[in-house]
Amino acid sequence: MTEVSNGKDIIKMINIEKIYKMGNSTFKALSDVNLTIAEGEYVAIVGPSGAGKSTLMNIIGCLDKPSRGEYVLDGINTNCNDNKLAEIRNKKIGFIFQNYNLLPKLNILENVELPLLYLGYPNNKSKEKVRGVIEKVGLSNHLKHKPSELSGGQMQRVAIARALVTDPQMILADEPTGALDSKTGKEVLKMLTDLNDEGNTIVMITHDMEIASHAKRIITVRDGKITSDNLNKREVGA
Length: 238
Description:
By secondary structure, this protein is of the alpha/beta class. The protein has one domain: P-loop containing nucleotide triphosphate hydrolases (Rossmann fold), CATH 3.40.50.300. It is 34% helix and 29% strand. The protein has eight helices and ten strands. The protein has helices at 53-60, 82-92, 108-118, 123-136, 152-164, 182-197, 209-212, 233-236; strands spanning 9-22, 25-38, 42-46, 68-73, 76-77, 93-96, 170-174, 202-206, 217-222, 225-231. A six-stranded mixed β-sheet has the order 6-7-8-3-9-10, with helices on both faces. A four-stranded antiparallel β-sheet has the order 2-1-4-5, covered by helices on one side.
């Protein structure tokens, strides 16, 4: 968990472009993106399908590299080889995906523990840490359950626990309510708000302005460019 924002930049993007080759032609998915997100912020990146927000998310999440420009994540320049980029990703970012991305053959405890195993966390300490975050999301009584035995809301809670277990500098949530009914979706959004209130930096990607309205800052992407970047007055004044 990070501390409440003290002005430290978690994300700093300078003149980011992403260009894909398509046969003999090229397609510019992102163009001249400049973005700074500080520690402790809760930011929604919103835009219609094809706007470039998924490409932006992949670069923010160190799942892809820009074609041009500079991306600094928590003080580290991400212009590096793939192995180093994966190391940065595993240490700095906790992911929450629309479809949970849980391994079906593993139980809750094992799914949440996976990021710690990748980081070489001591086994005796990892179990204690995993149990703590599972308790935090209210699933202590389901440690041995596998994903197929859980509801959609419970699976997303497992995904949130997995995102938290490494104490990442940022939680990156991709359409976190997309596979949930409205009631369960509101519960997950409330959990994200609570996590941000505790000091966690959250970046959420969504196509839905109603979902985006739960964040404290809303960035709109269209045609590969940031077209607006505003504080959410409803949240700020709440």
